């Protein structure tokens, strides 16, 4: 099948076919470029690359190197040391302006040549060549492959770099550059002559879009805090003296180069690269700008585009009383729970929790003022620090009111800072376990002893309505069986082995999940039963049931059921009627649990 | 309960207590301000306002008026007419620089005084006073209440506005201003003297954060495309000559005013306002800047902060074969479906669908290459245009391969542009109906006539395993009943009325939802049954069952079941055993439908 994303990219390339502009001519290597070459590449943050045109053609990176060298300088020296040498103010000036602050000599930003040469000098290394080697390897980590120098571009540029040489010496005069300015100039010219393809550039951009993690290698190349800084500077200063126009019309952090490339970053989503050598009067690729404007307009890519993220954090919110209960509690306990389950609230969260999402959750809980809250973060992808702190505040608030928050978080997206201490919150791998914990809490609060202490099987629907005669016959066939924690009681695929009523301990039913994982379906408590579902699946047991602790069951085996039915048809009829009612009770509850009101 | 969000805001106000800076002194009304006044307000995009300090204290809006007047000029005149008079380039200069382009005289941006005065002149109106009245009412629509002029501030400023008077006349000289510059100056000084509270400013900012819709009134004040422009200009030019520092350290679109206010916008999430009259050397509130830096750092509010949005679009993805089927198909049809259900895929989407999310969906579908796809967008909040177009491309792609996409979209978040035509996609209000449509398609493709055409009850689990003698007794008690579409067959709350086997037509089971809505649970097809679940709920029918079309059922009534059990115990036993097996079959399938592997 042909992807509509691919089709879309091809269609806009057809439509944005500006032939305006002139190829850069100041060195023969650039002047010789075929002006009609074209490539577009889009790399997603998980490393899928779409291309149109010849995205494997190589050319010199030129000024697109600037944000990446600035990133390396930040990574090597930190914000403060770099900030002493180069500012982050938009200059509103052309790329080749000298633009030093009249008092300090500090270049206005690292996207103009003066600032970029300064950033190159801030890379750690013993010599210009050592620093260049580190820059080349650094770029390769963003691209996901080793990159090489284009010697002929370097040789050509170094001989005609009069303006950059003037800038370097001026920077030395102000002590912005230290050491030999010719060495730094040589390093900078080499850096601009690193050979890249459009596909490389799209992955370099996607690394920034992905918060500093290279999409294909999975390597963290740049710390997130430096990614923010680099993107900020690209947004305000990346497109030379048309930065304001760019930010208004395209609205993505971007950087262009004189060889005809442009990269643009859609944070969290994708990196783009376009290559077309004809330049507009600002020195940006004319067709590249046209394509970026088109994509931004079509694709809501403007960074100031307002989505509705804030309303999506709470996926579902309901009291325990509305949770479809899964055959887990004896009826008498259930009555207590039914009477008090309104004040236990379940909050299912999803998506990325940013400030507004966490605020929404907090507001919901403040409004509900529950005694107990279950925060289910299984569908949450990422939790911003602010959201984590805010949700911890929620726990404190609940505790001050005498309550508690239980958390369902098998993947640890929201770790408890108090884990392992007295202050730890109850954390669970599945909602069922969290619900069981809350129910036990409620039962304790309302004077019911824990279920393990009582004899509950008499209350079981299979037994409670039997006539005394029938009960006597059945009791005669029931046997008590003991298991130790972790024992497999029933294996998936086995034959129907009878009805098992738990008198003490718990059992856990699970099925195979993806791979060789196991998905826990339900914890089965004293007073409830298991095994009988196999009657509905051609007599085949479909889940594995394991003892969750030391476990005692009363078993009415399949053979016993057969014997009773054959020898005491009247008791058999009663027994099957009881089983029918129990089965439809289970079915009804399970069907209800599938209801969504959302 | 005390909200942790409120607690957090109070704690950072305590910690960010800079007493640096001086109150603006150029007019007595500002010089007289108590330098230690303080207020913070945070307004969410759904209109909840948190405040610390005295957020009801009024002061003159001053330069915070600039983005809102620029918004009105854009709204009145459009991008092009406004763009001819004022540019959007960062100036990197102080607020009171004259900063006109040397060639055209055009101010660099609408956040410096020259650009702001120009923007004021572009508001539609017959006179300066008329234009001012429109500006005042416009600001009130952002604040959610009528605003007034502070006459004493206006009177004081107009007499000492020498620099702004010079700017206005210079703008007139270049024909940037048309008409009387004194009239525009008067209008501009009045605009700066509009009286606002910190709470007002937070709601004005939240209106921008909310894409132009005022959070409390719900009124669309500004078109989304102009919101993007205004936020872009605030981001690059809002904080005078420290715009670059601001965008690097705080990273939110913002605007400050000389009376000590700052607004900041977190797109999609919240608007902030801070008020503290002591100003730093750039003319921005010193404590305000300190607080904004702190909040941005704590709260991941930097606009270049990279989340992981792109991975959250596909909530679940599974073949029809893994959908827990809900007692809907006769077994023979089920066998056909089981054999072919791998090539029908269900994609449950959620969150806001931006480009990357839609691309993810497309990639999943291209990879799966299903014959039929169900796209379930019930949990999707917002669909960006690009996502809509991309998902439509998906449909085209599936059709070219001989397939189709069915859409579950009860709220119309992704309307079909071909609705009502031959090219329309099948749209459904619930997943169950979409699944039924796909199943019918599959059955047709594989040579099974639609179920309505055949006699299916013999295949029903309740009847198929009976001995001939038992079947004969039961047949004697079965009665055929007809209903018309919309007839209520069983009412919720009624007594168990027996087992109903559908021979033709469909029935729909539903329960009450929130309010007086009804939630459809399942469509019941020929060859399947309903009514027997009441046996599991103390003999009470808990769903309403309505004929979905002309409907014929074979009914084995509650009385008939009782009679058979009493008069033919052997047949009764067989019947109850069959019911038990059927019930556990239903229970098993329903329990499985609650499994999530996510």
From TrEMBL, chains A, B:
One Pfam family recorded for the sequence: Glutaminase
Gene3D superfamilies, per database record: DD-peptidase/beta-lactamase superfamily (3.40.710.10), Jelly Rolls (2.60.120.10), STAS domain (3.30.750.24)
Enzyme class (EC, first level): hydrolase
Catalyzed reactions: L-glutamine + H2O = L-glutamate + NH4(+)
PANTHER family: GLUTAMINASE
Descriptive protein name: Glutaminase
Signal sequence range: none
NCBIfam families: Gln_ase (TIGR03814)
GO MF terms, alphabetically ordered: glutaminase activity
Entry-linked SUPFAM superfamilies: beta-lactamase/transpeptidase-like, cAMP-binding domain-like
InterPro entries membership: Beta-lactam/transpept-like, cNMP-bd_dom, cNMP-bd_dom_sf, Glutaminase, RmlC-like_jellyroll, STAS_dom_sf
Alphabetized PROSITE patterns for the sequence: CNMP_BINDING_3
Domain of life according to the entry: Bacteria
Keywords noted in UniProt: Acetylation, Hydrolase
EC number: 3.5.1.2
Annotated positions binding substrate: 63, 113, 157, 164, 188, 240, 258
